[in-house]
Amino acid sequence: xxxTHPLDLALQLQSTSSGQYEGHTSPGYWNMVGPFxxxxxxxxxxxxxxHPDRLGEPLSLTVNYxxxxxxxxxxxxxxPVRTNRSTQHWTLSxxxxxxxxxxxxxxxxxxxxAVRRETWSVSDEPMPEVAAPxxxxxIEPGFGVEWLQRYEMRQVQxxxxxxxxxxxxxxxxxxxxxxxPPRPLDFPALAALADVFFPRVWLRRxxxxxxxxxxxxxxxxxSQDQLQTTGTGYVLGQARGQEFRNGFFDQTARLxxxxxxxxxxxxxxxxxxx
Amino acid sequence: xxxTHPLDLALQLQSTSSGQYEGHTSPGYWNMVGPFxxxxxxxxxxxxxxHPDRLGEPLSLTVNYxxxxxxxxxxxxxxPVRTNRSTQHWTLSxxxxxxxxxxxxxxxxxxxxAVRRETWSVSDEPMPEVAAPxxxxxIEPGFGVEWLQRYEMRQVQxxxxxxxxxxxxxxxxxxxxxxxPPRPLDFPALAALADVFFPRVWLRRxxxxxxxxxxxxxxxxxSQDQLQTTGTGYVLGQARGQEFRNGFFDQTARLxxxxxxxxxxxxxxxxxxx
Lengths: 274, 274
Fold this sequence. Notes:
By secondary structure, chain A is mostly beta strands. Chain A has helices at residues 6-10, 37-50, 187-193, 200-205, 224-230; strands spanning 14-17, 20-24, 57-65, 73-83, 87-97, 103-114, 122-123, 151-157, 173-179, 211-220, 235-245, 248-257, 262-272. In chain A, helix 2 (37-50) runs antiparallel to helix 3. The longest helix of chain A has 14 residues, at 37-50.
């Protein structure tokens, strides 16, 4: 008997016509009122990866969460709007039929793929020196949400507050993470990992206010080969808030593999209440 | 006689039908082989600001530079794809007729606008302590490109290398900047300022290799009121490279006003050669 990995289940897409795919929300990645945002990002990347006209590998991804997906089928529209010699520009949207039978946009996205060539390279964000994943305890998934069960996380610093007592603290988190069960890293999985961090405002204020990502951008620095080398190893994620103001904050994040390669950098702007 | 500010000239748009605008590239913001990327970002923000159905103020902007605009007219398509109670999601594209008479996409973009309410707020990126703009010399615009004449810049650190000798240095720049001649700050002007920094790879390597922005994201933390208060004052811009790898690097940037308010944070991924 072969078990399909929960992530591969969630990424299953049926091509119905050129640039159109049908998917289905995955109970395994359910958050409080809709799918985990990272899984939507992963599905969008998967659709580009599957497209027969794709040139190169993902370089940049922006996902705008326009409205919550409801449990059920959805349609992906994936269009390569411009293909250059070494870059390709994509626009994407996720559509779903609402309660009144209207087809509505739940998500918009843009992706750039690129054929990369070896050049002078340097990392100006070396991986911080932290304890090895094996030396850190595994975090029990909290909040009673399903998608957290899909990740193995080992906190270095900046975990979910033990007491929601309104005390303030820095908004920096570092944690080792990987898919649960382990699964060889690829671009969709990496896109999802970039959105794993709990809302910085919860950490900053030790207050569990309503919060949700409005827009996330991921820059992929890794090649397919580097992801393959990373395999089922851990990824060190670091996230920090920059500005919390009048209902929105932004987060900057970095993801390294165990060998210290910066695989991706990411930013998001997040709604919060109060 | 009233003189129209060069930025307002560049931002002139004619609404031709619902969500469609005609613009014209502006010689005043010409870069080497096309318009300064920041001016394209500014025009896109302007189009959203002009749209009669707009809800709230710009919160997030992503611009993907798919192909160079050529000197001449262009068409903007601006669609509010989803309007929620307090956020609105926009997709945009810039189209131009190419040499063979085909309408091609030169730029894609997404914008989120939002109605913001006063909440708990905190800045985790305080403005660095730097010399006041009046104590720093004005930089002579270089490279013989026109758009640099449209900005007054006073470098704090990390200026354009004097010698292109291939020596390595940190990729951090700080400079005071504002429109030239001074013009009250608004969302389009702020979007353009986020793209003012010269390519980090030039600074990092003291080598003037071909480079160009592929995708930029700007998160607006300022309200219209704060921009109005900033007026014609200077903006402190700080930019830094994070990862330079195989033909692309990413840049993270922050923009404060003289009062120390973080007006915007921004990120971009940039192509470079060699």
